[in-house]
Amino acid sequence: MIRRPPRSTPKPSSAASDVYKRQVVKDSLTMSIIETRITLIQDNEYRIVDPIISETASFKKNELINSKILIEKEDYFPRIISEFEMDTVVTLLKRMKDEFILENVYFDLDSYDLNIDSKQTLDIISLWLRNNSHHKIEIGGHTDKLGSEEYNLDLSEKRALSVYNYLLSKQEELSNLSYKGYGSTIPLRKKYDGPKNRRIEFKILK
Predict the structure, then answer these.
(1) CA distance 159 to 142
(2) Between 4 and 77, where is the model more confident?
(3) How much is the mean pLDDT over the chain?
């Protein structure tokens, strides 16, 4: 069960089911609280919370066990929250510019297969894409520097294609997606050559 909190902070009782976790969403630049759409993903069921109109949205602690939360707002990149260690979770949303990395979508060495964690993340991202079909989005595949330039370029394109095909399998009506492989030409950050270079990025084309 999902409850909107009263103006005052709820007082947790001794019962574990009555202990609340609070979710606060802010603009990453202004740090101002913003209204968002929050979807609680629990046991493969999508439970939608009304857009936040106050400082917090609250969930019972036991509702967040093995759950994830998708936070989305028009013209912002989405965030997927899966850890709720603090009583109050503050999430920063970035405005939609350039590109962003799909968190938890990574690949094993020399592989373009999507693992279970990656598919679960893409399942959630497909919900966000459904509400943002007006944006043209390029799925960019990236590799580390192991292997030849030609091999890495081919591998990165296969990774991007894997994501592209999976998202289309979840939302067949999507027509705003494209994909491209970049090989190892764009590392995650300068002088970094670790495994996180094997990644997928979304680039907003328009």
Answers:
(1) 8
(2) 77
(3) 80
> Are the C-beta atoms of residues 77 and 132 closer than 8 Å to each other?
no
- The answer to whether 144 touches 198, Cβ cutoff 8 Å, is yes
Instruction: Using the predicted structure, report yes or no on whether residue 172 has a pLDDT greater than 80.
Output: no
Q: Are 47 and 40 in contact (CB under 8 A)?
A: yes
Q: Which residue has the higher pLDDT, 107 or 4?
A: 107
CA–CA separation, 205 and 149 (whole Å):
25
Three-state SS for 18?
helix
In whole angstroms, what is the distance from residue 17 CA to residue 35 CA?
27
Reference 60, options 75, 49, 71, 52; nearest CA is: 49
Decide: 113 and 133 in contact? Cβ < 8 Å: no
Q: What is the pTM of this model?
A: 0.74
Let me know the angle formed at the C-alpha of 141 by 136 and 146, rounded to the nearest 5 degrees.
165
Query: Residue 133 and residue 139: Cα distance in Å, rounded?
Result: 14
| Token code pair at residue 125 | 């991202």
**First and final CA of the chain: distance in angstroms?**
38
Instruction: List the one residue out of 76, 89, 107 whose CA is nearest residue 200.
Output: 107
Strand partners, 93: 27
Element (H, E) at 41: strand 37-42
pLDDT of residue 3: 46
